[in-house]
Amino acid sequence: MNNGEKFGLICDKNYVADLIMTIQMAGVVIGAAVTGQLADTFGRKPVLYLEHLILVILWFSCAFVGSWQAYAALRFIIGGLTGGVILVSFVLPLEFITPKWRTFCGCIGFWAIGMALLALWGYFVRDWRNLMIGTSTTSALILITFW
């Protein structure tokens, strides 16, 4: 049984995958706006690590949901947290660099390395639930850099 059949996404419900992606992107927009304010109020580092911790837990949880509606709700929250983590993890390191090097360092884009690694994960781990478990547990290692 494929993943679409597990969630009942056959025939007349083929729109759901696009809907979930739209819901997640709405979360990204809202999360970036909210996190910017939170990071300015409480500090970038605590907000970054708290959001990343919640993000790892929710990523892991996605592998065990039983309906596409629950999955969509988790993806909305994950989108919000991802928007916040991207925003803060871009701004925070640039605060420690002199203005002369900020443009250069801001353009490096280490996210491209992460996307390439995700493609490699996806090639070797074919089941999406196992992929969610694997990527979420390895990204939890980032949390040890707080100290």
From TrEMBL:
Cleavable signal peptide: none
UniProt superkingdom: Eukaryota
Membrane-crossing segments per the record: 15-35, 47-66, 72-92, 104-124
Protein's cellular compartments: Membrane
Domain (Major facilitator superfamily (MFS) profile) ranges: 1-147
Membrane topology of the entry: Multi-pass membrane protein
InterPro entries named among the record's database cross-references: MFS_dom, MFS_sugar_transport-like, MFS_trans_sf
Main localization category: membrane
Keywords: Membrane, Transmembrane, Transmembrane helix
Protein name: Major facilitator superfamily (MFS) profile domain-containing protein
